[in-house]
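HUMAN: Can I see a protein plus its fold?

ASSISTANT:
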Amino acid sequence: MAQGARHDVCLQRFDGRAGSDPPRHRRTYASSRGNRAETDVGVSERRHSGFQPSARPDEQPEDERGFHSLVVSNSWGMFHPDWDAMPGTPGSYFDDPLHPFFELLEDLASMGVDLVFAAGNCGPDCPDGRCPPPSIDPAHRRIGGANAHRDVLCVTGVDVNRRLAGYASHGPGTLQHEKPDVAGYTHFLGSRAFGASAADTGTSAACPIAAGVVAALRSRFPTDPASPRRSPAAIRDYLRQTADNPHQRGWNAQYGFGVLDTSQLDTAANVL
């Protein structure tokens, strides 16, 4: 399907193919998934407590400190710009690079923490009902906030047939243009958290799949502050370079740099 073509993959029905459990790995893995509170406080202000820089790898519990690496998986995002200061205004979580929350992300990345965020579910074909309506400025429906930060691996979603999910948010990003970075698998039978035949859906499901791939890499190539080759940026670059783009070379606003390709992980030792 060419870039820009309409996707008919709203993925409202489970396609019957079972997914496997995420691979086990011995990395410290943190997940933060929150629900929007019904208050007038900006949505980003309720996220700070889960992202304090005290999560640095060298301050882990003593029995985990030998693992060296920390992968943070975040399946939340801001559906509508009205949830915070409006885009284009100082302090806007959506697009102000000086927002204080982003300072926390930068601190974590500087400590060697790998950050993996979901792209969001405001895609043009079948967006979540909380997203801005199609009539709103398209610039306000792209990937924004921390999900578009340069220090984050931003993950969109494809089904097991590698079709882009119709609800997956499109780039570019508000803070960094080339977002999403990569696509991970979603809409598969995995956790069964919502019933025996209920699929795990959304870019929220694709995000921890990608985080598991990062953790698998870290089990072989742990964070090393003395080596730029082991930095979070190097991990992101490697996953972008080895991703399989089914439609074109390079980045596009739908798939990013392509679908994560774990068959390439045996080449990681050449660059990490």
In short: Confidence is low (pLDDT under 50) at residues 1-9, 11-49.
